[in-house]
Design goal:
Elements: E1 2-4, H1 24-29, E2 38-39, E3 50-54, E4 63-64, H2 75-81, H3 84-100, E5 105-107, H4 130-145, E6 150-156, E7 169-171, H5 174-181, H6 183-190, E8 196-199, E9 203-204, E10 207-208, H7 213-223, E11 229-231, H8 242-246, H9 261-268, H10 274-291, H11 308-321, E12 323-327, E13 339-343, H12 368-375, E14 380-384, E15 394-395, E16 405-410, E17 420-424, E18 428-431, E19 445-453, E20 458-466, E21 469-474, E22 477-482, E23 499-505, E24 510-518, E25 525-532, H13 539-548, E26 552-558, H14 579-589, E27 593-598, E28 613-616, H15 624-632, E29 665-667, H16 676-681, E30 699-701, E31 705-709, E32 712-721, E33 727-737, E34 748-757, E35 762-769, E36 776-778, E37 783-786, E38 789-798, E39 801-810
Parallel strand pairs: 3-5, 5-6, 6-8, 7-9, 7-29, 8-11, 13-14, 13-26, 26-27, 27-28
Antiparallel strand pairs: 1-37, 2-3, 4-18, 9-10, 12-28, 15-25, 16-17, 16-19, 18-25, 19-24, 20-23, 20-25, 21-22, 21-24, 30-32, 31-32, 32-35, 33-34, 33-38, 36-37, 38-39
Helix pairs in contact: 2-11, 3-4, 3-11, 4-6, 11-15, 12-15, 13-14
Amino acid sequence: MSVIEPAAGTAVSTPDIDLSALTLDEKAALTGGEDVWHLRAIPALGLGRLRMSDGPSGLRGERRGLTRSLAFPCGTAVGATWDVDLAARYGEALAGEARDKGVHLLLGPTVCIIRTPVAGRTFESFSEDPWLTSRLAVAYIRGVQGQGVGCCVKHFVCNDQEFERMTISAIVEEDVLREIHLPAFEAAVKEAGVWAVMTAYNGLNGVPCSENEELVTGILKDEWAFDGLAVSDWLGTYHHVAPALAGLDVEMPGPARYLGSQVADAVRAGDVPEAVLDESCRRVVRLMDRAGARVPGVAPGLVEVDDPGRRGLAREIATAATVLLSNDGLLPLTDGVRRVAVIGPNADHLQSGGGGSSLVLPFTHQSLVEALGERLNGVEIVYEPGCDINRGAVPLDRRLLTGNLAMRYFHDLESNEAAGDDILWGGTFITTSAPSPAVSLDRFALRAGGTISAPLTGLWQFSLVNTGGARVLLDGKLVLDNMVAVPGDSMYGYGSAPVTAGIELVAGEEHELLIEMETGGLPVAGFSLGAQAPEQPGLLGRAEAAARDADAVILVVGTDNDWETEGRDRADISLVGGQEQLVERVLAANPRTAVIVNAGSPIEMPWADRAAANLVLWFPGEEGAPALADILTGRAEPGGRLPLTIPRRLEDVAAQRWYPGADGRVVYGEGLMVGYRHFDHAKVEPAFAFGHGLTFTNFEYGVPEVAVDGWTVSASIPVTNTGDRAGTEVVQLYVGRRDAGTGRPPQELKAFRKVLIAPGETVTVTLELDAGSLRTWDKAERTWVSAAGRFELLFAASSRDVRRRLPLDLPGVRA
């Protein structure tokens, strides 16, 4: 056995940054944010405020509902592209969005490994595999930071469920931590040079991540020589002194509750060495300098730029991410199709993204019905929702509003003198900063007015939550009164419990809507007005009839940003809201049905072998409808491969035996057997395997060749497109051990490459391995090792579709 030494070096300090101009209290103030989105300016050093923004699939901006951003595909969609070049371009586009909004630091990417599909934020992550996640993360970060905008990779580490996310502690063996859950963070630091790392809400082996010295200082700063900023997740700091001693540089949001001035007090008391504080200050200054926050004062204003190039890229990513799971020839739709039934609750309004901090307000929306109509000239298209999947009232959008809401600010509701104007693009408005220079965040009022027109006649249920006090008037009549509100858990914990009212509306009739609100002296101000449509009898029967009369059916099922969201895990992975029955009835009526799954994480698919085609669209961003329409009509190839395993049953997932944990602990008892590793090890048949995905053509793998130089392995294999149209193939290289009793997974992904191949063309794909990609963690020695052994190279189109195998003996080791 030979040992690969840990990365050399200690935390990088910058003695050239002169902090002598700052007092102890001024330095301590830098360890807490100024507010929700900013690090405070340092005039003495010529540095202005640094602005952050939520991501990772678009720039949210500071004021929800007012600032639109391009909604890009979600994390699992990016993972499904298996395309590092596309991930880099994605990063470049996000940097452009950030510059438009004066943002210096993007809070993303999310690189936590998917260990259970029920986790509420599964859709934010790239993959269940550390190698695929690492390659995409490095490309994404390089793309963003190459344009002068920083990334804050998150959540460090094992933020893999939302159940008790603020208090649960992940109990993880060291080899599992090193080989499965840390590699993407390590690659982000050592290869991409990420500027910031966000600690997770949860604990690791009994210690909160934000104050875990072994994790933050020992691994991140000392071992990996990270020279950037370690920042807490928002409200993810829990104690005084301990986070500072552990290496946490900044507590967010501001004003600080545990760091900030408390650090100055701790320094004076001798509980925190001033050198520790100085090191954190240097890291803050270094980040500001890198991000170009060099002019004291307020960062540039928020600007909406609907850039055609970025929009085209969003569609390209959505196309490259769509996974064709099966196809009996129905797709692409042929000229013989004269009537297409588009069915499903998500079909007319595709869900672009998941809920929580990653949700952005898109510029536009095009329904799949509209997009198909533009591409299928002369084809009759009928639409039926089939069922309703809404949990309750959803924020007002274009389905009820006839336009936007004109919003005016006042000092109070008694005043008629406006203090500013805005446009609100839906029923939700949340701000953490003063919405107008003429008012303050803790004291202002607003009036937002517009027109609603119901698409359905019946009793609509309206719901209002808000900070401070608010009320809603319809045609001048008070319909919702929440001026004296009961506290609830909305609006980051500062909002009210909902008040509701049923209102009879007639389809097509217009009504004047007015929302009035006064703030309540809180760090957050806002409201959310939602509506739930009346029950519609006969939806299922109409969908069944439409399917029966069609030449082909496009059935779109899935979730939405309320079912998949930060803060709440799913109960299971079955379809919600009557969709299971909808699928069964539609397939019985017309087996020439393509089932499209519009969800960010796996869905059980017991119908899969009875549908003519199955596709996974993920949460595709706002260009999802045209991208999907291109694929269904053959204008584009489905380019995606699964970045995770789709199980037949939830209980087939290894982590479910230990999820969600108890007594504040969740044991990662599956060890190294995460995702496909478990399915291979336990010989469990998945519904669809990791790496699987079809195109509209076929590929043949030739005889591979391998050249070995010590522990550097160069493997090449010819791949031929045997079909009649161009397509992309993802050549995957897995490595297995032929030594008995190693306790290792049967095979592990160690290289991949996506290539576009013309009809009849043969492309030789070369993949590289080295000691770093073949290393394992020795728990006894607590270090990386590469041991001589008998290996096997598996050239595959998925973890279950191995095309060629080659034995590989490595008698020597090179560290």
